[in-house]
Amino acid sequence: MTYTIKGSTGQWEVVVGLEVHAQVISQAKLFSGAATAFGAEPNSQVSFVDAAFPGMLPVVNAECVAQAVRTGLGLNAQIHRVSRFDRKNYFYADLPSGYQISQFEHPIVGTGEIEVELADGSTKVIGITRLHLEQDAGKSIHDQHPTKTLIDLNRCGVALMEIVSEPDIRSPEEAGAYVRKLRSILRYLGTCDGNMEEGSMRADVNVSVRKHGEPYRTRCEVKNVNSIRFVMQAVEAEATRQVEVWESGGTVMQETRLFDSGRGITRAMRSKEDAHDYRYFPDPDLLPLVLDEDWIAALKASLPELPDAKRARFIQSYGLSPYDAAVLVAEKATADFYETVATGRDPKIAANWITGDFFAAMNRLGRTIDNPPVTAAALGGLLDLMADSTINGRIAKDVFEAMVETGKDAATIVDEKGLRQVTDTGAIDEAVARILTANPDKVAEYRSGKDKLFGFFVGQTMKALAGKGNPALINETLKQLLSAPKE
Amino acid sequence: MLTDLTIAAARDGLRAKEFSAVDLTMAHLHAIEALNPRLNAFITVSHARAVDQARAADVALAAGEQRALTGIPLAIKDLFCTEGVRTTAGSKILAPFVPPYESTVTANLLRDGAVFLGKANLDEFAMGSSNMTSAYGPVENPWKRRQDDTAVLVPGGSSGGSAAAVSARLAMGATGTDTGGSIRQPASFCGLVGVKPTYGRCSRWGVVAFASSLDHPGPFARTVQDSAILLGSMAGHDPKDSTSAALAVPDFEAACRRGVKGLRIGIPREYRSDGMPVEIDALWQQGIGWLRAAGAEIVDVSLPHTRYGLATYYIVAPAEASSNLARYDGVRFGAREKGLDLRDLYERTRAEGFGAEVRRRILIGTYVLSAGYYDAYYLRAQKIRALILKDFTDAFGKVDALLAPTAPSAAFAQGENMDDPIQMYLNDLFTVPANLAGVPAASVPAGLDANGLPLGLQVIGKPFDEETVFAVSAAIEQAASFTALPSLRAGG
């Protein structure tokens, strides 16, 4: 169903385009040799180039360029053989040179697209307008001194990719799915860690609303939104605000706004009139960036398998449902975990365990796939015990919880707790006979056609065997004894 | 006198142990002591450091290790960052700035054994043609008018201190930078050889930027051979400057001896402006005659877009400068004025720190890059710049080098040309096209005007063909046998 906002004058469609700033994973900054590690002592990763000392010159870092090209390839985008760096001029204390080196007219990557999966199982293609490289600014810290602003230049000059989408997004859900998918691709490629809470990925959200069939109306830009949840909330809050403005007879003015996550609203930051005149012009310190066709081809050949391809392969080779496959490939680490478990085992059972008990335990304990509640090898061991009938599925759930709790492997727990499945037919026959004898009326009902009671007999038998009975053997014995009444 | 020696002669004398590097440096330091209070050619004299470097040179010479410039005392334009030695760019805003690094060009000179006497005066941020915009006071040209030796003449600019120092024998050579003529015009005004090499030949790393696409470091010397020796040391590929050319440095000194026989020399007809002084035109004709006599073929060529050069230059250069000078904000280095908030701090620091000419160019540059004006000014200027480069490319399809005057006049007096900035900008008329095209050019002293002031001729070459520029310059030098001396000079 199309997402709309219901106003007093009818339904409003939401139009969203996103500009995502993704910090490039690289050892050194975009134009200086300084290091880029997160969390270092303030101003400890600053070269004279970053601090814009007189006579310092930028030299482009080839690895950052390669990362941008890899990302462009991952977004199925055009790679521009020739691009150019421009200066974006403005004064601020955390911008030492008084200009940011960016790519204005000639970005390194042109149009591309990504496919996002939605909750109803459908997919949607979102267009990518461009990707360009630029420098990050430093950080101004306003809350550590009563009258002074402190400046940390560690981040200054770190490479960013600005990835601009087409205004193809039509709902908060699509906006969230887009950022999630983009982040997944960047992580697969290893070009951005996608940690929004650390600020290494942040989104500017452009929102407008319109009545069905109308051309675009004026948009507002909600700056620096730093989580997927906030992106979705910002779309909704801003669209709702605009609907109210239009419906109360007002006009939405083009402006830059901030999302106040505490109050769930957007607030005006600056209007178009106050907008900087950035005086873009080509940076005369840098030559045009010219890429070699063979170099691009070599990068393309070395790209890892990306989420879409992996999902298709999981459906194809493992027989997974599209939904399970999408869940498992969203994070590369999860997909790798799954493949470790699934290799040499039943791939569907592996998928069910990971998306079921495993994810539940991970979420409950606040763990991540990189620090999982049980290792892939241990989970595989548990599945093996089920496969060779050492334990049944019900017991396996208990064993799994014990594994999470104790860190011991499945076989140890099964031995220690004596959970080995009862496959002794004599013991099962005896238990079944005892249950049938104790419930003559139910036996009679069953025999007169009440098939549903079969489950009751299974449950009772299993209970009698302390849950360790082999379900197949119990079924077999029950069927035999119930269908052949003693004469 | 030691201060009268050429670099080439001093090199021989040092090798032959006729005198020591300390002797040579002390002679220049004494000359500076005597004349700099009047000439104001140096902003900073690094006396102790120079003596230390000279002693080190003597140790090297004693060990038989003589490099291209071992023990040769030089002046360094105060636009080159020198590690541990204050670098002002002629501006108040950098008055307290002591760089923690050495520019590539000066590092190359030090690698080759040079001794640095100090930092030479210049127009503020190299913006000027008279050295009158320096925050450290004007520089006096050592040359005097024959009829009127009271008039204080300018040395030209922006590398006025470098030119005055070499002319008055306070240094054997100097570094300069040439953005629109800032080496060649002062060389012409002070009777020196000044070379602006090809863009990319000398690294800009560590040189305080004025207009990045136009800034060219280069040498001043009293002979063509000396300038070739200096450029040979200054030049070379620098991976720290993305616009530096990855080319080997040729033997420029050897190129001075090539001669011009068989070379085709172009005479650009557009350089003959209507208002050109008769003396300048006569000198030009003289130069043509000399080269023809030396065996060169003279060819008439056209550079049709020359007349747009100055206008183009005064859009591109301020545009880049307005951005390059944004970093002087009082936050991290240099002078800072107190402010009520960040914006106030910026405004006070920059209003107090920059002089009138720098402020004018920042305003012009900001204007031409502004939304709504960019296409009409900056973009159009870039298009004309491309046409000017094409003019040179076309001309060099027919000739090996071009000959033209360097400046439209001899040195003028302090106070002249000061009321109207445009009048001052006209000084760059013949020099800016080579900056816009990035081609190498040199000014060679070729004669005197009626007042006895030096006049230079300009030789312009193909990109990265400084060798031909040196060959042609040497031929003019030989024919001109320029022996006149400035009134103010060491021992004079």
Labels describing this entry:
heterodimer; A: 487 residues; alpha+beta; Arc Repressor Mutant, subunit A; 2 domains; three-stranded antiparallel sheet; 19% strand; elongated; B: 492 residues; alpha/beta; Amidase signature (AS) enzymes; eleven-stranded mixed sheet; 38% helix
Descriptive overview:
The complex is a heterodimer of chains A (487) and B (492). Chain A is α+β, with helices and mostly antiparallel strands. In chain A, 39% of the residues lie in helices and 19% in strands. Chain A folds into two domains: 7-298, no CATH class; 425-483, Arc Repressor Mutant, subunit A (Orthogonal Bundle). Chain A has helices spanning 62-74, 172-189, 228-247, 293-301, 307-318, 322-329, 332-342, 347-365, 376-387, 393-406, 410-417, 425-438, 440-447, 453-464, 471-483; strands at residues 4-7, 10-23, 82-83, 86-89, 99-102, 112-117, 123-135, 139-141, 150-152, 159-165, 201-210, 220-225, 255-260, 265-271, 281-282, 289-290. In chain A, the strands form four sheets. In chain A, strands 1, 2, 6, 7, 10, 11, 12, 13 and 14 form a nine-stranded mixed β-sheet that branches. A three-stranded antiparallel β-sheet of chain A has the order 5-4-15, with no helix packed on it. Chain A has a two-stranded antiparallel sheet with strand order 3-16. The model of chain A has no long low-confidence stretch (mean pLDDT 92). By secondary structure, chain B is an alpha/beta fold. Chain B has a domain at 2-258 and 441-480: Alpha-Beta Complex (Amidase signature (AS) enzymes), CATH 3.90.1300. Helix content of chain B is 38%, strand content 13%. Chain B has helices at 7-15, 21-39, 47-62, 104-111, 160-167, 184-190, 224-234, 252-255, 278-293, 309-324, 342-353, 356-369, 375-395, 421-425, 432-437, 466-480; strands spanning 42-45, 73-77, 115-120, 173-178, 193-196, 216-221, 264-268, 297-301, 401-405, 441-448, 454-461. In chain B, strands 1-3-2-4-6-5-10-11-9-7-8 form an eleven-stranded mixed β-sheet, with helices on both faces. In chain B, α2 (21-39) packs antiparallel against α3 (47-62), α10 (309-324) packs across α12 and α10 crosses α13 (375-395). The mean pLDDT of chain B is 96. The interface between A and B is large, with 30 and 43 residues.
